[in-house]
Design goal:
The chain is an alpha/beta fold and 413 residues long. It has two domains: 156 residues, Aspartate Aminotransferase, domain 1; 243 residues, Type I PLP-dependent aspartate aminotransferase-like (Major domain) (Aspartate Aminotransferase, domain 2, 3-Layer(aba) Sandwich). It has 15 helices and 17 strands. The strands form four sheets. It has a seven-stranded mixed beta sheet with strand order 4-12-11-10-7-5-6, with helices on both faces. Helix 13 runs parallel beside helix 15. The longest helix has 23 residues. The two termini are 41 Å apart. Bound molecules: pyridoxal-5'-phosphate. Pyridoxal-5'-phosphate (PLP) binds next to helix 6.
């Protein structure tokens, strides 16, 4: 088996895969010059068989690692049984996943989508429709979000994204969106009024550079939305499912949102998103209000159920907390040794602020050392290892990053 694989990989080398992609795939990404063919746990392998420690994790998707045997078996079994039905019919995997997510989150109703941006889109639509059709307040249209946030690329989620650079050239965006500085309770207090349908926040800004909300900020968001009759949407597409050392990052603040969005880690790599809501908020949708052809199909739901099983059985929430604390301490040591600005984050969602615009060079140097990480901006590195990462893998990653930093900064680790 192995020799056949190796032979195939040799026939289609990285250079050929890259050239063919560059010829016809739309150029929306600036990609790293690596063509991956296989993954197992925290490691991925390129077409030449070179192994990398994967601390990008498919952008926070590989919560249970690559090709976890439980997830692979669930997908294989379900694929042979029934892949898709549409939502005109009931399926057992979807019923089971809805039940599990409701029990985990305390939010009784789920709408299934296929991605993070679609989960956010559903959340924004539900918030406005709840105001109009349940509260009968047609004027309550405004959505308040934070500067530096990221909520997705479809037009509604893009409008909620408080970063000018993502909007440019796509105007006009849907109206009724307003932005406030993150982690500033007074600014939120001033922006939320009788015209506000919802506030949407990430408990940790991910694409914005790994910036955690203070628990007090999330508590203030809960208080002010409740007081003014607006809904609180927490976008946990990146932070959800154990990533931060909590099943959901908002648990850290001891609050519960009205609406919660999930995606990235949920399907173990199968595309699936979910928008959860309280029974009350969910009254905003009725048959025909919103839909998705693929959303919650049996294949994606079975994969997600396997992911949730693995998270529970391997105690990955606790693991993320323990490994995250250890990794953060080691990153702080790197910051000290190399004269960088700051290491920060929660659980296994970590960032390093280099204090200098050399993040792309450090990412490339780390890759040379066999470590995959990415940059959220010119000065910020982000580390999102699978939650199954072991202490030895953490040690190896830190050693590789140490060498990469030394090479780029000319410092000694
Ligand atoms: C990645 C991300 C999204 C968008 O998810 P896609 O699956 O890429 O559409 C939305 N919100 C947050 C917080 C994210 O990190």
């Amino acid at each position: 088996m192995e020799s056949v694989e190796t032979l195939k990989e040799a026939l289609t080398g990285s250079a050929e895969i890259i050239a063919r992609s560059e010829a016809h795939v739309m150029k929306t990404y600036r990609r790293y010059p690596v063509a991956l063919v296989r993954g197992a746990g925290c490691r991925v392998f390129d077409a030449e068989g070179r192994s990398y420690l994967d601390f990008v994790g498919g952008i926070a998707v590989a919560v249970v690692g690559h090709c976890h045997p439980r997830v692979v078996a669930a997908i294989q079994e379900q694929a042979a049984r029934l892949i898709h039905t549409s939502n005109l019919f009931y399926t057992e995997p979807q019923a089971a996943l809805a039940e599990r997510l409701a029990a985990l989150s305390g939010l009784e109703r789920v709408f299934f989508a296929n991605s993070g941006t679609e989960a956010v889109e559903a959340a924004l639509k539900l918030a406005r429709r709840y105001a109009a059709s349940v509260r009968r307040e047609e004027g309550r249209r405004k959505i308040v979000s934070a500067f530096n946030s990221f909520h997705g690329r479809t037009l509604g989620a893009l409008a909620a994204t408080g970063q000018e650079k993502y909007h440019r050239g796509f105007e006009p965006l849907p109206a009724g969106f307003e932005y406030v500085p993150y982690n500033d309770p007074a600014a939120l207090e001033a922006a939320v009024d009788e015209k506000t349908a919802a506030v949407i926040l990430e408990p940790v800004q991910g694409e914005g550079g790994v910036i955690p909300a203070t628990p007090e900020y999330l508590q203030a968001a809960r208080r002010v939305t409740q007081a003014r009759g607006a809904l609180l949407i927490l976008d946990e597409v990146q932070t959800g499912l154990g990533r931060t050392g909590w099943m959901f990052a908002h648990e850290r603040a001891g609050i519960r949102p009205d609406i919660l969005t999930l995606a990235k880690g949920l399907g173990g790599g199968m595309p699936i998103g979910a928008m959860l809501a309280t029974e009350e908020a969910a009254r905003g949708f009725e048959p025909g209000s919103h839909a998705s052809t693929f959303g919650g199909n049996p294949l994606a739901c079975r994969a997600a159920l396997a992911v949730l099983d693995v998270i529970a059985e391997e105690r990955l929430v606790e693991a993320a907390r323990a490994r995250g604390e250890r990794l953060l301490a080691m990153l702080r040591e790197l910051v000290r040794c190399h004269g960088l600005k700051e290491a920060r984050g929660v659980g296994l969602m970590l960032g390093i602020d280099l204090g200098r615009p050399v993040a792309p060079q450090v990412v490339a140097a780390a890759r040379e050392q066999g470590l995959l990480i990415n940059a959220t901006g010119p000065e910020t590195l982000r580390l999102l290892p699978p939650l199954v990462v072991g202490d030895e893998e953490v040690d190896a990653a830190v050693a590789a990053l140490d060498r990469a930093l030394a090479a780029v900064m000319g410092t000694k680790g």
